[in-house]
Amino acid sequence: MASTTDISPDLITEGTILFSAPGTDKECATWYKIFGPLGATSRIPLVVLHGGPGLSHDYLLPMQELWSRHQIPVIFYDQIGNGKSTHLPETKGDETFWKEELFWDELDNLIKGLGLREYDVLGQSWGGMMGSKWAGIRKPKGLRKLILSNSPADLNAWERAYASYRNLLPEDVEAELKKGEEAEDWESKEYEEAVMFFFARHLITVDPMPAEVFESLAWAGKDDTVAMTMSGPDEFKSRGIMKNWSAAEAAKGIEAPTLVINGVNEGASDEAVKPFVDGIKDVKWVKLENSTHCPVHEEKENYLKVISEFLLG
């Protein structure tokens, strides 16, 4: 994997943009990191929306190679409450604050703060979920192309996919998952090990797990405010504001040409992405056969090829 040391430090920009988050008087800031100079190339910059809710940008860092290979500037940022952006642990449990629109406002603010007039957006997992409704409802000016990577349009379909995969688990693993769920003991060693066994089949199949993925998980472990408030502790059944989440109607309003990507044996199943494929006016669907939910690590070369061909086409 190309690392940041392979790119001249002069071509990497890191900073923060102030963000007035509705519902708090606390001064907030969105942290960002850009690979490639904005405005110094004819390529349209790509804004990357990470997953979660409650992770950080780190696990998506291999996408920086879009700059080194194709001179596409890549903009990473940590969503509010996550990673290096402002944390708000005092708002844990406040569903009136942690609404999806908060992240739309932050994205709009980032785009404005960076002075982007034309840009592409890639949302991975939750990032694509949030990005799809942002694009379909707000119809942002300047959005040229949209990529929804491993993102369900219907979270109930994601949960149905996960339930079907659990039917194929070894009996002892499934027993530990059920035991944890019945006791609502999400932090026991046995439950966590069972979840990681499931993830090794259906989230990321790379062994050992890449350092960038561990970094994002570590951030989530340090502050679980966003994840617990928006979706709850259960990996198999969403709670909070994410319960019954759907972008099926919003997808019909997406005007930008859109690439939908999913893998095999993952939460963003064919059923889960179907409302995007059926509802978006100008859409292309690519199914990656050699990865589950994290193709940037599981089949990076093909993943970056599919993305770059769409962006440059």
Quick recap:
The chain has 313 residues and is an alpha/beta fold. The chain has twelve helices and eight strands. Helix content is 39%, strand content 15%.
Overall description:
- With 313 residues, the chain is an alpha/beta fold.
- Helix content is 39%, strand content 15%.
- The protein is built from twelve helices and eight strands.
- It has helices at residues 65-70, 100-113, 126-138, 155-166, 171-183, 189-202, 211-222, 225-230, 248-251, 270-279, 295-298, 300-312; strands at 12-19, 28-35, 46-49, 74-77, 119-124, 143-149, 258-262, 283-287.
- Strands 1-2-4-3-5-6-7-8 form an eight-stranded mixed beta sheet, with helices on both faces.
- Helix 5 (171-183) crosses helix 6 (189-202).
- The relative contact order is 0.16.
Keywords for this entry:
313 residues, alpha/beta, globular
The secondary-structure class comes to: alpha/beta
Distance between the termini: 25 Å
Secondary-structure element pattern, one letter each = EEEHEHEHEHHHHHHEHEHH
Biggest sheet overview: 8 strands, mixed
Number of helices: 12
Q: What integer is the average pLDDT?
A: 95
Count the beta strands. 8
Largest sheet: spatial strand order: 1-2-4-3-5-6-7-8
